């Protein structure tokens, strides 16, 4: 997750430099999109990690037949 956030940080620094350098709006918008994607991926990683480790730690190891609802939640979490 840190790697993804550092990538977002690098993209954000680029956006700031581009704005200060008066670069074209299209180029800035593309970089901002990259920042958003990197942050969204970090958030998704955090949620999946929570489900895989923290939730299982609290409930105990889930049998294979009970993992379906956790896996389904992981899938739906991509729309957050």
UniProtKB/TrEMBL annotation:
Pfam families xrefs: Trns_repr_metal
Question: Cross-referenced InterPro entries, in alphabetical order?
Answer: Metal_Tscrpt_repr (IPR003735), Metal_Tscrpt_repr_sf (IPR038390)
Family from the record:
Belongs to the FrmR/RcnR family.
Name under which the protein is recorded: Metal-sensing transcriptional repressor
